Amino acid sequence: MHFSKGKVQVTKYTYMDDQDKADLQYCADHGVDVYVQEVPEDKKQPLEEVI
């Protein structure tokens, strides 16, 4: 989820628009463990922390 027109930065390297956020929230609401992790060495950030 890189920068493109209409997206806002939610972490150092991750950009989302409202549809991205809604889609990920839908997954999380249905039992999927959704998190952001830039590289394997980084700490996982739960979706709730970035949106």
TrEMBL record:
* Gene Ontology CC terms, in alphabetical order: cytoplasm
- GO molecular-function term, one example from the UniProt record: protein-N(PI)-phosphohistidine-sugar phosphotransferase activity
The record's InterPro entries line, in alphabetical order, gives: PTS_IIB_sorbose-sp (IPR004720), PTS_IIB_sorbose-sp_sf (IPR036667)
Q: Where is the PTS EIIB type-4 domain?
A: 1-44
* Pfam families (UniProt xref): PTSIIB_sorb (PF03830)
Q: Which UniProt keywords apply?
A: Cytoplasm, Kinase, Phosphotransferase system, Sugar transport, Transferase, Transport
Mostly located where? Answer: cytoplasm
Superkingdom in the source lineage: Bacteria
Q: Which GO terms describe its biological process?
A: phosphoenolpyruvate-dependent sugar phosphotransferase system
| Coiled-coil residues | none
Its localization reads: Cytoplasm
What's the protein called, per UniProt?
PTS sugar transporter subunit IIB
Source species: Lactiplantibacillus pentosus
